Amino acid sequence: MIRLYDFSKKLYFLIILFCFSTILNAQVVDTLNYEQVYTMLTSCNYHKTIIDGRDSAMFYSGHNINAVYIDAISDEVPRFLENYTNYDSLLVYCTNQTRSEMIIDKLKKLNYQGRIIYMQDGINGWKNNDFPIKIQDIND
């Protein structure tokens, strides 16, 4: 009887330890709207990478001036994202949340430890408020 009690105490302790370590290693994602992102980007001290997770046609039809193009659906996403895993902060957006969530999920799987900023209203919120975008030829 005593051994069963000791075993269950140890098991309980291990479960709590596992849950606590999982919480500590969880990636924090800050969700901001287009206005908050614009304020952050126009501040003098913000020089971070912006990832646009849309497809090439959508990206080239208008994107944030400093955004890099990484199609969230591409099989090459993990390889492209590895170039940014040493950055302390990444801003991610798309048209709606689906592609952004895919990029964020892949960053988590790559064990990215920096701050992830998710622009919840995506490029549509950005464009609808006449914030600056870059339109370029797909061959540029």
Keywords:
single chain, 140 residues, alpha/beta, Oxidized Rhodanese, domain 1, two-stranded antiparallel ribbon, 7 strands, 18% strand
What does this structure look like?
The protein has 140 residues and is α/β, with parallel strands linked by helices. It has one domain (27-134): Oxidized Rhodanese, domain 1. 45% of the residues lie in helices and 18% in strands. The longest helix has 24 residues, at 2-25. The protein is globular, with a radius of gyration of 20 Å.
Quick gist of this model?
The protein has a single domain, classed as Oxidized Rhodanese, domain 1, CATH 3.40.250. The protein has 6 helices and 7 strands.
What's the architecture, going by CATH? 3-Layer(aba) Sandwich
Order of helices and strands: HEHEHEEHEHEHE
Number of domains: 1
CATH topology: Oxidized Rhodanese, domain 1
Subunit organisation of the chains = single chain
CATH class: Alpha Beta
Average of per-residue pLDDT values:
82
Instruction: Measure the end-to-end span.
Output: 74 Å
Main sheet overview: 5 strands, parallel
The radius of gyration over CA amounts to 20 Å
- Total strand count, please? 7
Categorize the overall geometry.
globular
